[in-house]
Design a protein that fits this description.
Enolase-like, domain 1; Ubiquitin-like (UB roll); alpha+beta; 5-stranded antiparallel beta sheet; 494 residues; 3 domains; DNA polymerase, domain 1
């Protein structure tokens, strides 16, 4: 057992044991390392001013992703390479092409948000040689700018892609082999890490299990521990609600929980699979689900957040549960003693209460693939199209028989009740009936028997109720061939 985490910060290997379980990477960088190019903004993963890159070893090699340092806890960095904006320029002070393009295209006014934009664009530069307008916009979803405007920043991204130098000093390309070797050496130790720090209310512990089996054993001994995968939700418990979490078990490094497997019947997603990882498969296997994931947070959030965490927290406004419930997904829960599988919809019992026993954790979810002749759609309603929390999210899955009657229908909503919940009265009213406009019009009011939504800052109860009914209408129109799916703007290639 080890008592310190090890990671690489820019060009330096770091062994670190002086931290509490909720210390953020942002505070470490600014307060302890004086790397103040990483800015402190919203402290909730929304503005992107704190964007850094985190590299980790995958089956495809060393992969760098943009993340929000403000909600990334130090305990989740073991075996990674953290890259800040200070690492981009050459030793002689020459700007990296991404930085130079921001200068040339006047992509900065006050400059506060600029380092975060640079790091997001740098992440895109590393992975995509000729990004489309849509890919540039996607890379910038998680970065907010209040004074420059996005067009000069997008033009900077286009310029650096169009004028990509054939040879260039780039620290990550130059040192890639060395960095990979160091990360392999760190991961090869495979020890469970426990970091203890004395704080005002006692000894706080950060636990990094060496394997999933070790995780299961630790959770059996510490059933009240907080499990952290991506911290896109838990991070806000700390930065906004000021909760004290102790102990915390970090699982984002466990490759056994990060598998995605496809079969003839569906897709099995490990609990540690990030939205970004899942998107690559779901956008092909279940396109409507993929379009939903593209609207969850910004790219930094999707790189950190996990589908398993979205399920496990049991939020009534979580985006993925309605789609998963409508598709009839199954959840596998695990303890050190074994596993059990339940229908996902049975996992959500009441507000803040889930069917998870002491010492039990979400291991994976199986998502059935919709039949080709069936209809599946999911709709997220929010104030902003990108990087916004849902007012409500509805999913519809329909099968018709040869006579045009409803042979099967499953409708599920988030944001309408204390838990993600099916609209069973609506389903009963539709089942066995001819799928037509008259049926849909007559069934809309059945939503009032299924949901009594609340009013909050996202939407009023009346708005939620009316919108749910209108989404049924939209779903019907789309099954009749009247699709109105909003697609991201793309510049046509010359």
């Amino acid at each position: 057992m080890s008592e310190a985490i090890r990671f690489i910060l820019n060009g330096e290997e770091v062994t670190f044991k002086d931290f509490g379980p909720t210390e953020t990477l942002l505070d470490y960088l600014r307060l302890k390392r004086r790397l103040t190019g990483t800015k402190e903004g919203c402290a909730e993963g929304d503005c992107g001013a704190c964007t850094v890159l985190v590299g980790r070893l995958t089956d495809q090699g060393l992969r760098y992703e943009s993340v929000n340092a403000c909600i990334r806890f130090m305990g989740s960095l073991h075996g990674t390479h953290v890259v800040t904006v200070e690492h981009l320029a050459g030793k002689d002070g020459a700007l990296h092409p991404v930085q130079q393009a921001m200068v040339d295209c006047h992509g900065s006014q006050c400059g506060f948000c600029t380092p975060g934009f640079v790091m997001s664009l740098y992440g895109l530069w590393l992975t995509t040689e000729r990004p489309t307008r849509a890919e540039i916009e996607s890379a910038l979803q998680g970065n907010l700018c209040r004074c420059t405007g996005y067009e000069p920043i997008v033009k900077a991204a286009e310029q650096v892609a169009a004028n990509r130098p054939s040879s260039l000093f780039d620290p990550l390309e130059r040192d890639r082999i060395q960095i990979m070797a160091k990360l392999w050496a760190i991961q090869a130790e495979n020890d469970t890490i426990v970091v203890e720090k004395t704080e005002t209310n006692g000894t706080a512990r950060s636990i990094v299990p060496g394997s999933v089996a070790a995780f299961a054993d630790i959770l059996a001994e510490e059933p009240d521990a907080t499990i952290v995968a991506g911290a896109t939700d838990v991070g806000l418990w700390v930065t906004k609600q000021m909760r004290v979490l102790n102990p915390v078990i970090f699982i984002n490094h466990l490759g056994e929980l990060q598998t995605v497997e496809t079969s003839e019947t569906g897709v099995t997603i490990g609990a540690g699979v990030s939205y970004t990882q899942a998107l690559r498969t779901l956008s092909t296997e279940i396109p409507a689900f993929g379009r939903l994931i593209d609207r969850i947070g910004g790219q930094q959030v999707r790189n950190m957040g996990t589908i398993g965490g979205n399920i496990a927290n049991g939020s009534p406004i979580g985006d993925t549960p309605p789609a998963l419930i409508a598709l009839g997904s199954e959840l596998t829960l695990r303890t050190h003693a074994g596993r059990r599988t339940i229908p996902l919809e049975d996992y959500f019992i009441a507000y803040g209460k889930q069917d998870r026993l002491a010492g039990e954790f979400v291991e994976r979810v199986f998502v059935p693939r919709p039949a080709e002749d069936n209809h599946f759609a999911v709709y997220k309603i929010s104030k902003r199209r990108d990087e916004d929390i849902s007012a409500l999210c509805g999913a519809f899955y329909l099968a018709l028989d040869g006579d045009g009657k409803v042979a099967m229908i499953r409708i599920a909503f988030g944001g309408m009740a204390a838990t993600p919940k099916r609209a069973k009265h609506v389903e009963e009213a539709l089942l066995g009936q001819v799928w037509n406009w008259d049926l849909v019009s007559a069934t809309r009011d059945a939503f009032d028997e299924d949901y009594q939504p609340l009013s909050d800052w996202r939407a009023t109860a009346e708005y939620r109720s009316l919108t749910a009914k209108n989404l049924l209408t939209r779903f019907f129109l789309e099954t009749a061939g009247q699709s109105h799916e909003l697609r991201r703007f793309e510049v046509e290639e010359a």
